[in-house]
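Question (not urgent): is this output format expected?
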Amino acid sequence: MEAIPHARPLSPREKEVALLIARGYKDEEISKALYISRRRVGEIVCTIKEKWHVRSRVEIGVMVYHLGWLVFNEVRAE
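Got this back:
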């Protein structure tokens, strides 16, 4: 991870969830894509927020872009 003040690195599963959030997936869609429960997705999202000191899914998406894990043209089109 690039130097982001006070941000702790994510586990591989947390990174997968963060990437899907940045692509616009909802919790239910993430749970289906990763074969985990919706509740577990919520727990992972909370952990990401704590590690990165952010309050929203939008901020998670911003961090993912800032870290270079995803580029703009990789976002889902609906």
